Amino acid sequence: IDGVLYVTTAWSKVLAFDAASGKPLWQFDPKVPPEWGAKGCCDVVNRGLAAWGGNLYVGSYDGRLIALDAKTGKPVWDVSTIDRSKPYSSTGAPRVANGKVFIGNAGAELCVRGYVSAFDAKTGKLLWRFYTVPGDPKQSYEQPILREAAKTWKGDLVWKLGGGATVWDGMLYDPGTNLLYFGTGNGTPWVAEARSPGGGDNLFVTSIVAVNADTGEYAWHYQTVPAETWDFDATSPLAMADLVIDGQK
Q1: From residue 226, how far is each of 38, 76, 79, 153, 160 by CA, in Å?
Q2: Whether 88 contacts 106, CB under 8 Å
Q3: How far is CA 123 from the centre of its chain?
Q4: Is there a catalytic annotation at residue 231?
Q5: Potential cystine with 90: which of 59, 85, 113, 226 (Cβ 3.0-4.6 Å)?
């Protein structure tokens, strides 16, 4: 961006280089507590940054979303995106659009509940949150669609164990529809019969979900593997394209 190359490394560190010469310009270390490394399944990786309005945005491994001044690397704001009493981690690249930063989290192997959050890009204020699996039925459902999703689960392990379906990467914004698309990962535990005795598709495990980017309101979903039991996450980076099929765009 403007002649500067930005990269992230393990432990969510960020480095800036002059793109023409390779000269280091600055580096940022979010100082993730070393013991947090035990709270993830798959090492202390980081999958990249978002950029908007002179800021960079990075998810730290311990579940924070941090805005950095792109010129200096100094923090602009730093907010927690998780319940820090639970084994969440954050490894995915945030996405940014229309003044909002979107980020998910990881931890489905360790009994957490997946969700996507939207934050104000200028202030770090939480704007909305979309949960990917139903919670305790004794509580009100955070989104109306979760009442329907709950019908695809059996038993009570979904809310006792968290359900999984974390959004640890794979988000995409479409300005044409103002939709945010994201993919979800495996359920908790992996084996479908263990988490939902008696069957069910277990929405929204391993699904692509679309929500209104301004409000988080559900638009549609497609479950890639109903009753997923093989860790076939749907969280790979998403891409959009106009295709011609049978002569029709």
Answers
A1: 30, 42, 34, 11, 21
A2: yes
A3: 19
A4: yes
A5: 59
Distance, first Cα to last Cα, the chain? 33
Written as one letter, the residue type at 45 is V
C-alpha to C-alpha distance for 195 and 216, rounded to whole angstroms:
27
In contact, 67 and 55? CB cutoff 8 Å: yes
Query: pLDDT tens digits, residue range 40-61?
Result: 888 999 999 999 999 999 999 9
**What pTM does this model have?**
0.95
Q: Which residues touch 177 (CB under 8 Å, ≥6 apart)?
A: 210
Compute the radius of gyration of the chain from its Cα atoms: 18
Query: Looking at the chain, how many residues does it have?
Result: 249
Task: Report how far residue 119's alpha carbon sits from residue 102's, in angstroms, rounded to the nearest whole number.
Answer: 7
- Determine contact, residues 167/115, Cβ cutoff 8 Å: yes
Give tens-digit pLDDT for 104-143.
999 999 999 999 999 999 999 999 999 999 999 888 899 9
As to burial, measured by CB atoms within 10 angstroms (0-12 exposed, 13-18 middle, 19+ buried), residue 120 is middle
Helix (H, G, I), strand (E, B) or coil at 189: coil
Q: Closest by alpha carbon to 65, among 50, 78, 83?
A: 78
Out of 120, 231, 242, 246, the active site residue is 231
Q: How far apart are CA 143 and CA 131, in angstroms?
A: 8
- Integer CA distances (angstroms), 216 to 30, 31, 180, 182, 205, in order: 28, 31, 8, 12, 18
Residues 6+ apart with CB under 8 A from 98: 178, 213, 214
